[in-house]
Write a structure and sequence with these properties.
The protein has one domain: START domain (Alpha-D-Glucose-1,6-Bisphosphate, Chain A, domain 4, 2-Layer Sandwich), CATH 3.30.530. A hairpin with a 6-residue loop joins strand 1 and strand 2. The radius of gyration is 15 Å and the shape is globular. Strands 1-2-8-7-6-5-4-3 form an 8-stranded antiparallel sheet, covered by helices on one side. The protein has 157 residues and is an alpha+beta fold.
Amino acid sequence: MTDTEFVIEPGRQDIVMIRVLDGPPDLVFRVVTDPELIPRWWGPHHLSTRVERMEVAPGGRWRFANVDARGREHFFSGVYHAVVPAERYVRTWEFEGAPEEVALETVTLTALDGGTRYTARSVHPSVEARDAIVKAGGPRGGRESMDRLAALVVSQM
């Protein structure tokens, strides 16, 4: 299993997260777009995830809730703009606690010998909005999600 790599350059509005997964792109795509599997990998370890809506098609909406140990809910949502099975999807990504700061996320799956390179690039409305995600622990949560995703992909083979 490889580690998750982040590219977070000063003065830029984007975050790039890269992870090599041990499974083919069609399997990885199925796992990351199956609403039944999302709660098994999406979000940090200390939160549970509930999928409220997930329409993986251009114009389709998605909404997930992260729930902490006290039952407090934190909602994330957006709209799919492009979906190419086993290759990529593009969607907006919004933490509903900061609705004016919508990011555009592109997830690309690239076949490698025996695996898939998962690359997620999120472009935020400003450097300040991007930096707030980093300061709030976005990379830590992303790394935990990718660790869980990697294990889930292997279990689905």
